[in-house]
Every structure is written in structure tokens, then in C-alpha cells.
# Entry
Amino acid sequence: MELPQIRMQSQQARIAIDTQPARQEMIQPKADLSIQQPRAEMTMQTTPAKLTIDQTQAWEDMNLRSVERLNEKIAQDGKQAALEGIGRRAAEGTELMKIENKGNPLISQAVQNAHEPMKALGIKFIPSAFAVKIHYQPSEVQIDVKPNKPIIEARVNKPEVNYIPGDVTVSMANYQDLQIDFVNLFPTTAQAK
# Structure
């Protein structure tokens, strides 16, 4: 004999959750940078070198004077010769005044004045040592430099931030279900016999 049965079959509900994560994008543009370096300002001042050569004494030593200097020399020598002549004549006059002293001043003066003095031999056309005077003044250079600072311009760019929010989708994957069956509630004809 079969007993009546209740058969139950159930299915639980199932939730489906679909998520999309949030996304964040960050871009940092480079800063705009401008650098200019002005040239330094430089000034230079130069005093030229100066060389002086004085050959006057060398020319005079070789008896090659200018007309002015030659006239001055001749005048100087003439004046000196005149003074020497006056001095010689004064000395001779003094000797003659004192004729009573021993000696014979007339004869000694006559012998002395009768002959020209001997000329000195020597090379007259070579100038003396260091007769040429040389003076050198070196040049001077004055340099002034004024440096210029660089011109720097910087512009900072803000970061670009893009945010895409996440999403959560909730849906029913399966709905709950309950099925109830009754078995062997009524006896079949075969079973009744």
C-alpha cells in the first residue's frame, strides 16, 4: 500500500549584483616654462701704448745737430771761448805787472801763444753709451662687465582629474519557487482491489 505523500520542491531566490568599479584618471600637464638669458653688457676702454725715443743726445754726440741746437752750441762755445780769452789775458796782464818777480813772462807768453794746442785724436762719430733715451708706457685695458639675470617665467598647470563613478546593478537572477505535489492521495483502481 502506498501512503499518500506531499512532495515539495523549492528554489531559493538569487540576487545578481553587477558592479562597475569607479575610475579616476589624473593627467598632470607639464608647467609652461620660459627662460631668457639676456647677454651681459661689456665695455672695454683701451689706452694705447706709448713709445718715445729721444735721439737728441746721440745726434749731438755725432755733431749732427738741428739748426737751432747748432746755433745754441756755437753761441755757447763762443761765449765760453770769450770768457776763457778774457781770463787768459787778465792772467797774462797780471804776470806782466809783476815783471820784477823772477822769470821772463814775455818769452813764456810768446811761446805759449805761438802754437795751437795739439788736437786730440779719437772717433767723434760714435755716440756715447745710453745716448738714445727710450721710454715705453704700456697700454691699459679697463673691462667692465655687467651680468644680466635670467628672465624666468613659469606657469603652473593644474592637474586634470576625471572621475567616472562606479555603478552597482542589482537584479534577480532567479526568483523563489515552491512546487508542491501530492502523490497517492486517491487509490487507483488497481490498488483498490
User: Anything to note?
Assistant: The chain has three domains: 1-31+155-193, 38-57+125-149, 64-117.
